Each structure stands twice: as C-alpha cells, then as structure tokens.
Amino acid sequence: MSDVIGGSGPELKRVMGPGLLLLFVVGDILGTGIYALTGKVANEVGGAVWVPFLVAFLVALITGMSYLELVTKYPHAAGAALYTHKAFGIQFLTFMVAFAVMSSGITSASTASRAFAANFAEAFDLDIGTGAAVTVTALVFIAAVAAINLRGVSESVKLNVLLTCVELTGLLIVIAIGCWALGVGDGDFGRIVEFDTGERTAVGGVVVATTLAFYAMVGFEDSVNMAEECKEPSRIFPKVLFVGLTITGLGYVLVSISAIALVPAEQLGQGDTPLLKVVEIGAPAFPTYIFAYITMFAVANSALINMLMASRLMYGMARQGVLPRPFGRVHETRRTPYIAIVFTTLLALGLIVLVGEVPELGGTTALLLLAVFTVVNIAVLVLRRDHVTHEHFHTPTALPVLGALTCGFLVTPFTDRNIEQYVIAGVLLAIGIALCGVNYLAIRSMRAQPLATEPPAK
Q: With contact defined as beta carbons under 8 Å apart, do 305 and 312 qualify?
C-alpha cells in the first residue's frame, strides 16, 4: 500500500493552466445532482429548497479548503488515499478510503442511469412509467457506458470543455426562465421562504435535505488527482478551486430558486425530471425535448466519468497488491482494465435492480464521500507536523475542525438519513473487505508453498 504515494518512471505532462483547470472543476461538479435531485430536496424542505443547496455549498467549501492545503502541500495524484496514508500510515484505513471513493463512483453512476432513463423517456415522448421499463433503460445505459469504457475513452481537455459548456447551458436556461418569470410576474417567488418539513423542525428538515443536496456538490475532490498534470499546482489551485466551487454553488442556488418559483414543491418532487418541469411550465414555447437532450448529455457524462474513475481505481488497487491481481489485468488490444470494468459494471447493475431509487443512490454517494471528507479534514490537522520546503496554501485551523465535525455529523443517523443508505454503503465496503481478505489469503498461500525442486537424477 505504501506504493500508492509514489513510484519511479516518467512524470505526467503538465498541460493544464488555470483556465482549463477551472473548466475541469466546474465540469466535474456539474451533472446528475442538480438535474435529478432538486425535486427530492423540495420534498424534504418545501419551498426553501435553495437553503440545503447553500448549506451543502458551505460544507463543500470548508472541506475544499482542506483539500487545497493538502494538494498544494503534496501536489501528486491519488487524492484522499494519499493524504490518509501520509497522515495515519494505516494500510487498512487507506484501503477503506480508496474503496469508499471507488464505491461512491459506482453509486453515482447508478443514480445517473436512473436520471438518464427518465429524461430519455421525456426526450422521445415515451410512456414507460416509473417501474420495470425505467429500470431496463437504466441497465441498457450502464451496459453502453461499460462498452465505451471497455473500448477505451480518450479524454482530452477539449472534450471536457465541450461537455462543461453543454451542462452549464442547461442550468443557464433554467435560471433565464426564472428571471423571465420574475420580470413578467408569472412566478411565485414567495415560495422560496416557505418551509414544509412535515413532522420535523425547519432545522431538521434542512439537515435531511442537505444530506441529499450535498450530492450535487461532490466532484471537486476529483480535481486533486490532476495535480501532476497542472502547471504550478501549488500556485493556481487555491484560486481555481475556490472560484469553481463558488460558480457551481451560486448556480445551484439560482437554479433551485427559479425552479420553486415556477413549480410548487409537491409537483417538483414528483418523478426524476424536476428541471424539465420547470422548462415546460416557465417557457411552454421552448422545445422541451432540447432540454431533455441536454439533461441526458449531462447525466451520461457524469456516469461515464464515475465509471471510468471506479474501474481505474480498482485497477490501481490491484496493481498495488491490495486487491486480487486479476482486477489489474489489461486487455491486450484495447489496453483497458477489462476485469475491473466488468466487476464495477456488475455492481452498478445490481444497485439499479435492487435499489433503483434516485434519492437512496444519491444519498449513499454523499454518505460515502462525507465519511472520506471527515478523514481528510482530520488529516490536514495531523499533517501540520509534516513540513515541506515549498510554499503552499494554509487553511485557518478552525475550518478543518469545523469541516470534520460537520461532515462527521452528516454521516451519522442523527440526520435522519434513510437506513437503506447505510445498508448500501455497508454492503459495498464489505465487498471491498472481502476482496482484500481473499487477496491476503492468496498471497499468504503463495508464500507458504515450498519452492519446486528438481527430481533426483536416476
């Protein structure tokens, strides 16, 4: 496991300046969360749907400051696993953090597949309901993502720019429609201060809704894995990550305000295409199929990125010797980690069939990453004793303390989080522990075998 923090060989090419890094950060955060979960957040908090998104942004910003200190102090790929290993040196903890990140990619892709299926039906005007047909569509979609992944995907910065622009366009359309409604007096902006949290208090409703809304803010943590491909990462990362988080956080708040002003909370919370309802009601003349295509594109991109990350992380752990060696095999012609791709795809397919619900899959993604963020915030404080020779960003001590407490609290059952999310996360992590155990026993068995000797000469 110690090899996870370094190695010999040629370095990655540093091609990303501040502009391209900003587009990567924004593009990685944008996607399924805001497109699929806005209505589910409204179900928990009512008209004040923007409040959980604002709280989620603040929590992400605090944790982002911790990531900034660590990535500028240790400008290498590997992210949370690297920081955990340096801070604690416990191989099992490092493995669990890495596997939790990988599992979050699978649950996130499964969330995206359900959202894709719902928007696919809207785009092609198909009446497939919310049951088996949606599940089958989601399964076919994940299988298609796996096929692309197996074939090999050349991810260039130019493609990321295009994807980011398309995703951002969809959100700008919703914001523009909301501004238009405000100008002509069609929207009811009085709803944005109405709390409807059922039997919970307003604070309790916001906490529950934040555990969902936080899913929309994840993705910024992936940018630290680009540190070795950035020009002067210790200098450009602080400003870029802060600006990227602010752009997406502000955008999400404006989108949620526009959505609730045009669509009542009870209607917004029905189905998996909340923003499409906003376009249909706020701008009836707008060709809604275009927005459905944009949404499909956004969630498809999220799914592909997440499945790429999950399969490559599993491949990397196998190459480091902490997962069974077959997961590290590469296809001879396609040069892709085909066994890792197939395994992560099977896990995603299983989640779609057995869980299916977007809120639980999205909530599980947030749960796994909040647990990782808790460890990262603590790692910042532990690594203050490790001094480096170059200058780096230094976050105020109060922020990682607050980040660890906040993220740690949002992981606990005190948030009234659905128990199913703990079950899903527990099963995924148990699979990781089982694989790690199988690998340990295999290595131990190989070491115990006597060396072969030549038979005596006759």
A: no
